[in-house]
Amino acid sequence: MYKEQAPTGFKPDFLWGGATAANQLEGGWNLDGKGLTTAEVVKKATDRKVFSMSDVSKESIKEAIADKSDTNYPKRRGVDFYHHYKEDIALFAEMGFKSYRMSIAWPRIFPNGDDAEPNEKGLAFYDDVFDELAKYDIEPVVTLSHYEMPLHLTQKQNGWASRSTIDDFLKYTETVFKRYRDKVHYWLTFNEINSTTFGFIGSGSVDTDLSTTDEKLQLRYQALHHQFVASALAVKQGHEINSEFEIGSMLARTQTYPATPNPEDVRAAQDADQANLFYTDVQVRGEYPEYMNRFFNEHYIVLQMAPDDEQILREGKVDFLSFSYYMSTVTSNQPAGDDSVGNMTFGEKNPYLETSDWGWQIDPIGLRISLNTLWDRYRVPLFIVENGLGAVDQISEDGQIHDQYRIDYLRKHIEQMAEAVKDGVDLMGYTMWGPIDIISASTSEMSKRYGFIYVDQDDEGNGTLKRLKKDSFNWYKKVIASNGIDLN
């Protein structure tokens, strides 16, 4: 029965903004008591289309610890937000940001992850950042764990492969929840939690010494289970500390299409979609879905669970679902097409889509499809917390950066967001990735730029770190001022 007129635009309090991660942005990797993160022992990739963040061994970690420079480890230097945060936040405010998604570097608070007391200088730094955001009425959206857990926990107990890491994490979350209870309202537990099944990037667990795929899967899904439990307990903990907190999950969403109408291909796409949504099924619905039983059985995965884990998952369901969206992919029961060759994509190339320099297929309509899929499945508020175009930006002869390609990319995605809202999707906000140029997550390059703000630094770390506005800066300012109406 018809009840009311369909929405015609974004909510008045829509959370427009941008998103970054501490390990790609902050720098100051060895200042004021901060400990090493897992991100800071991953070497810069040699091929921009190859995902290498999971190829970490005990030997490579020892090599990284012995190296006291940032030459081979660009995430150690970031773009020095640690000393430029006032300038950068002022630029975000000039664009009219309503929100800013950022992460707290866990080892800046607990350098080793299991310290008896938190590092006060680290806590004070984020106090200063939150106060600066408050000065401009910018709402922080804080990710508690964004690929930057304390390296010491990898060395001591192989990261999230150990259940002990849950207690270490909850000590950290309790500390920041209490410290910032009046400064932060929106929280995310784990960034792109599905990345944990990729290996070291999300789990902080070394598995390169395991000989079979099934052995690696056993370790990775056990680490994931520990994160599920930790997330659920953190949600409950946060609500007890401040009942007004809104705490969400975060998924790396990839829309999957069948290569043909062949039912076998359609089934393959359905299987891929379930594999992607499994994580949010647990975090939003509070239980493991039945379809994973077959996968676990076929790969000899036996999860070690505590007697009350199922109850913990039920009681620790998230308040909203956030996700990243960059691309879609194509799958077939019998793959025969061209590989999409993206460093974070798997499957065949879609002939109907354009492709970025990093092999990521550009699919704005796929975002609308995903929004409708997620809303229909979960019926909780949705939040797009990453979406953007990595490109090689050049300073032109007039000293400007004319990034019309980025404007075109974002416009097309925002148009599809608006269509999804008209479809009835409850969309909270949009924090594009990333509003200022930062170190690439997948390759540790500087050349892969996403920002509205250009940072003068090259792949080797050379440059003045001067911030320059791109053409897209004023375009996004206009988008926010019009609440998504003026996209020209």
TrEMBL record:
It is an enzyme of class 3 (hydrolase). One of its GO terms (molecular function) is hydrolase activity, acting on glycosyl bonds. It comes from the Bacteria. Its EC number is 3.2.1.-. The active site is at E386 (nucleophile). PROSITE patterns: GLYCOSYL_HYDROL_F1_1 (PS00572), GLYCOSYL_HYDROL_F1_2 (PS00653). Keywords: Glycosidase, Hydrolase. Belongs to the glycosyl hydrolase 1 family. This is Glycoside hydrolase family 1 protein. It comes from Lapidilactobacillus mulanensis.
